[in-house]
């Protein structure tokens, strides 16, 4: 393989790609916009879901004793007359009303000696999220005013909730962002890989190149180098979209917790992103080489992304986490998949450097071997001529 010939082929591919404004947009801007736009959308949707809890609700009570009315009104319940009970029950079934609490006319708290307890009827619709939420809140209210034998979490100044809001949001992002990031870059390299070899093959241009006084391995190396350069640009664009989006999510969702990452975190995240893109590009180049035309290459290529997406979703599902954990080091030696796992660990701030370095090294080795394989394919007339 002659490096000068490799670079000549690479320059030809780069010139063809960057002279097309649409291709230039896809490589440079699209990954950034996909990641930043998705993160913004996720933040806005989450913020809207939080705000939806403040919407006005339709909830009512009938015959409530005076000492309970203030508490019920604080839960946004309004007093109505008993002649509306049937009407409101129908509205609840139709999801036009959230809740109805009906007290018996002779309601009285039990003194603890009688087994004949007054029955409060709470009508709700469990298929309506807001209705079920109101039902839970009213139940808590009634439990709070019942006679107690002991207190639970009774110290007002102590926060008994051990949940970490920032950790929860990191877990959510870790389950979504790696797959979206790789998909954004994949959308770029899939078309480039298909056009680079399968496209030249379909147009007959590859045969013209093969009769030139240039080694076939150099042609394969030039096309592979072009894909790696394009992958670096696309990966960098996607990484910048992720780096810009993560700190902004907390602000959009008006959370007290913010997503703070250090320079080391971003460097490691960039490393696993780029090496994953190398691995994916290498796989797509192999598919492009063995395909007869662009249509066949683009038809086969989505299989790679579907495997990664499905794997990414499974890796964040509680039922599958033990199975993935049992794989141990195997997770680090599967190209592209290893980067997705490591991205999740980095976003959650639960990573160690060794598995990340192993994953990056495996992806680089795999990419180098893929270039060798493509070079061997170029020596086969059967593969190049379909």
Could you characterize the architecture of this molecule?
With 386 residues, the protein is mainly α. 67% of the residues lie in helices and 4% in strands. The protein has 16 helices and 4 strands. It has helices at residues 3-18, 21-28, 30-51, 66-74, 85-93, 129-145, 165-203, 205-210, 216-252, 263-290, 294-300, 302-315, 321-327, 337-347, 353-378, 381-384; strands at 59-62, 77-79, 99-102, 121-124. Strands 2-1-3-4 form a 4-stranded mixed sheet, with helices on both faces. Helix 4 (66-74) links the parallel strand 1 and strand 2 (77-79). Helix 1 packs across helix 9 and helix 10 (263-290) runs antiparallel to helix 14 (337-347). It is elongated. The mean pLDDT is 79.
Spell out the blueprint of helices and strands.
Layout (H helix, E strand, L loop, with lengths): L2 H16 L2 H8 L1 H22 L7 E4 L3 H9 L2 E3 L5 H9 L5 E4 L18 E4 L4 H17 L19 H39 L1 H6 L5 H37 L10 H28 L3 H7 L1 H14 L5 H7 L9 H11 L5 H26 L2 H4 L2
Parallel strand pairs: 1-2, 1-3
Antiparallel strand pairs: 3-4
Helix pairs in contact: 1-9, 3-7, 3-9, 7-9, 7-10, 7-11, 7-12, 7-14, 9-10, 9-15, 10-11, 10-14, 10-15
């Amino acid at each position: 393989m002659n490096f000068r010939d490799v670079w000549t082929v690479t320059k030809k591919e780069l010139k063809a790609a960057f002279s097309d404004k649409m291709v230039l947009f896809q490589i440079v801007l699209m990954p950034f916009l996909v990641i930043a736009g998705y993160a913004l959308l996720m933040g806005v949707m989450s913020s809207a879901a939080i705000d939806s809890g403040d919407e006005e609700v339709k909830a009512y009570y009938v015959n409530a004793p005076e000492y309970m009315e203030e508490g019920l009104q604080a839960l946004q319940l309004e007093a109505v007359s008993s002649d509306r009970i049937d009407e409101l029950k129908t509205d609840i079934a139709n999801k036009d009303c959230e809740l109805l609490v009906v007290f018996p006319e002779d309601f009285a708290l039990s003194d603890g000696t009688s087994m004949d307890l007054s029955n409060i009827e709470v009508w709700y619709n469990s298929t309506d999220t807001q209705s079920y939420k109101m039902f839970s809140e009213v139940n808590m209210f009634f439990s709070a005013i019942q006679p107690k034998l002991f207190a639970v979490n009774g110290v007002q100044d102590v926060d008994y909730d051990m949940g970490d809001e920032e950790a929860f949001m990191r877990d959510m992002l870790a389950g979504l962002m790696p797959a979206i990031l790789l998909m954004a870059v994949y959308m770029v390299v899939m078309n480039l890989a298909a056009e680079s070899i399968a496209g030249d093959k379909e147009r007959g241009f590859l045969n013209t190149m093969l009769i030139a006084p240039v080694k076939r391995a150099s042609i394969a190396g030039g096309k592979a180098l072009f894909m790696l350069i394009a992958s670096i640009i696309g990966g960098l664009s996607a990484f910048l979209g992720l780096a810009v989006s993560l700190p902004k999510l907390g602000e959009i969702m008006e959370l007290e917790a913010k997503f703070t990452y250090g320079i080391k975190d971003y460097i490691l995240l960039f490393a696993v992103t780029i090496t994953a893109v190398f691995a994916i590009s290498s796989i797509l180049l192999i598919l492009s080489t063995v395909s007869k035309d662009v249509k066949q290459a683009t038809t086969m290529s989505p299989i790679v992304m579907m495997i990664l997406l499905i794997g990414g979703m499974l890796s964040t599902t509680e039922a599958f986490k033990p199975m993935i954990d049992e794989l141990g080091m195997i997770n680090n030696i599967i190209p592209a998949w290893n980067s997705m796992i490591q991205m999740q660990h980095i976003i959650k701030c639960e990573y160690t450097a060794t598995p990340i370095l192993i994953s990056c090294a495996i992806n680089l080795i795999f990419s180098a071997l893929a270039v060798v394989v493509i070079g061997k394919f170029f020596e086969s007339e059967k593969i190049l001529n379909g």
